[in-house]
Amino acid sequence: MPCYTVQTASVNLNNADHDLLAKALEKLGYTVVRTGKNFVFRKGAVSGSYQNNKINMQATGGAKMDTDEIKRAYSEQVIHHMAEKYAEEGYEMTRDGEEYVWTQNPGYGAVYA
Predict the structure, then answer these.
(1) Is residue 59's pLDDT more than 60?
(2) What is the DSSP secondary structure assignment for residue 107, as one 8-state letter?
(3) Of 4, 60, 104, 107, which residue is 20 to 30 A from 96 by alpha carbon distance?
(4) Where do the domains of the chain lie?
(5) Model-wide pTM > 0.85
(6) DSSP designation for 76
């Protein structure tokens, strides 16, 4: 691809949590600048914005955009967020191969007389 070509991509994320999405991008090495629920991000020659539940990205100079990587990183953040939430309710998350398993700790919430 010639160096003067600009690639663009758009991804609709109708139910995405903007905070978890920003954390996912930061974990992937993007610099994120937030303005409320919206933000812009950049890593090298790849830049983009998140606005109205949609990511718009651009890449110049032959840089590679990987929207699937962003979706995977976001999913990972959702799993970790839910693990924290369920841990407060006495559940523990373990991984069994490719699956996550939630088990309630025995005795959690037990009342002893």
Answers:
(1) yes
(2) T
(3) 107
(4) 6-104
(5) no
(6) H
